[in-house]
Design a protein that fits this description.
By secondary structure, the chain is an all-alpha fold. It has nine helices and no strands. The longest helix has 24 residues.
Length: about 170
């Protein structure tokens, strides 16, 4: 799945990274990896911190490009580019032009049942880690349905559904 995300990044960074004289050619691959890594790290951070409402909004709300996930990944990518010696203003411009577009395409591909290159099971299993804190079927249902998990006659919020996953 990370290979697919790297490929998605490669398909969308030709002008911003590869043809950009501010990014040395020998750092193109590192910059591409930093972009995809920033997106995955941000998703993992949102999951592990319990900030699931923003994560769900990105995957379900229809504005992935303007989501806090895209904003956080943009900031992370900016820091990584600056750490590679790229001027901070240039790094901000590259990140702002690349990350929101990629996050939007990533979410669209994840939500597209006809696109098997990304699926929510793969995304969550890759970012949840080997500690077993996330039950994949429970987390996946958050993105696709509302349920009366407590038997109280009300649809539970995303946070209510996930309280037990972080204990």
């Amino acid at each position: 799945m990370l290979d697919n995300l790297n490929q998605l990044v490669k398909e969308n960074v030709q002008e911003a990274i590869v043809n950009n004289s501010a990014v040395p050619n020998e750092q193109n691959e590192a910059a591409i990896s930093a972009a995809s890594g920033s997106i995955m790290d941000t998703i993992k951070q949102h999951l592990s911190s319990g900030d699931l409402s923003n994560l769900v909004d990105a995957f379900k709300g229809g504005n992935a490009e303007g989501s806090s996930v895209a904003q956080d990944a943009t900031a992370s990518f900016t820091d990584k580019l600056a750490g590679m010696g790229i001027n901070l203003d240039t790094a901000k411009g590259i990140a702002a032009s690349v990350i929101p577009v990629i996050v939007g395409k990533f979410v669209n591909k994840t939500n597209d049942p006809n696109d098997s290159s990304f699926n929510i099971h793969d995304v969550i299993s890759k970012v949840s880690g080997p500690d077993g804190k996330f039950d994949l079927s429970d987390v996946t249902r958050i993105f696709t349905e509302k349920t009366d998990a407590n038997g109280d006659g009300k649809d539970d919020s995303v946070i209510d559904k996930l309280k037990g996953l972080f204990s």
